[in-house]
Amino acid sequence: MEIKLTFPMLGRMFMMPASVADEYLKISTGDQLKVLISIYCAGSDRVDTERVAQMTGVSEQTVREAVIHFSKLGVFSAQGIEGAKPSWEGAVITTESQSAIQTAPKTEDLKLLGQPEAIKGTQRDTSKDSRVHYSPKELAGKIEADPALSALMQDMEGILGTPLKPQNTCDVLEMYEHLEFDPASIQMIAEYCKSLGKRKTAYILKVARDWFEDGVCDFEQVERRIIGMSAYNSLEGKIRRMIGQEGNVTKKQGEFIRSWQDMGFGFEMIELAYEINIDNTGKLSFPYMNKIITGWGEKGIHTPLAAKEEKERFAKSRQDKQHDGSISTRAVDDFAASIDLSKVTT
Question: Which of 1, 201, 220, 230 sits most deeply, having the most CB atoms within 10 A of its CB?
Answer without folding.
Answer: 201
